[in-house]
Structure formats: structure tokens, C-alpha cells
TrEMBL record:
The lineage of its organism: Bacteria, Pseudomonadati, Bacteroidota, Flavobacteriia, Flavobacteriales. PANTHER family: ACYL-COA BINDING PROTEIN 1, ISOFORM A, ACYL-COA-BINDING PROTEIN, ACBP. This is Acyl-CoA-binding protein. InterPro entries: Acyl-CoA-binding_protein (IPR000582), Acyl-CoA-binding_sf (IPR035984), FERM/acyl-CoA-bd_prot_sf (IPR014352). Transmembrane segments: none annotated. It comes from Flavobacterium suzhouense. Residues 6-87 form the ACB domain. Keywords: Lipid-binding. SUPFAM superfamilies: Acyl-CoA binding protein.
Length: 87
């Protein structure tokens, strides 16, 4: 039996996260968001014409902090974070 590939593990972690009912601390939520965006969206870019409220500013800041990660690195960190929350 071989190990699941990274994309399959990532999708499974996403499904686990989507089904979570407990509230998580804001910093954990932002970290999960940032890893997900980096894993699926590539490099964070600021649109100067976008209307930024405080919530979006925090989300963009979190994403900018992980912009050095490759998509695969972000997927691994996302999976680790979700699996550490759901035991």
C-alpha cells in the first residue's frame, strides 16, 4: 500500500476543515486561510483598487506572511495544521 499523494491528503484535510464545528482562535483561522490561499492561489498580490475592510486586511497580511512558500510546502503545512487540530 502506497502513501496518498499530496493533493489527495490536501483535499482530505480541506474536507475535515470544512466540516469542523468548533470555533478556532483567530490566529489559527488566519494561518489556515493563508496556507490554503498559498497552496491554491499562488503568490499573494495586493489589488490597490480593492475595497479593504479590516477583516480582509488581516487575511491578506496572513497570506503575505507565507508568500515565500511553494504551493506544495503550503499544502503540507495546511495538512499538518488541520491534523493537529482534529485529533
Amino acid at each position: 500500500m502506497h502513501e496518498k499523494d499530496l493533493d489527495t491528503q490536501f483535499q482530505e484535510a480541506y474536507e475535515k476543515a470544512s466540516n469542523m464545528t468548533e470555533a478556532l482562535p483567530q490566529d489559527v483561522m488566519l494561518r489556515i486561510y493563508a496556507y490554503y490561499k498559498q497552496a491554491t492561489g499562488g503568490i499573494a498580490q495586493v489589488n490597490p483598487y480593492q475595497n479593504f475592510d479590516l477583516r480582509n486586511a488581516f487575511k491578506m497580511n496572513a497570506w503575505m506572511q507565507v508568500r515565500h512558500l511553494t504551493p506544495d510546502e503550503a499544502k503540507k503545512l495546511y495538512i499538518e495544521t488541520i491534523n493537529s487540530i482534529i485529533k
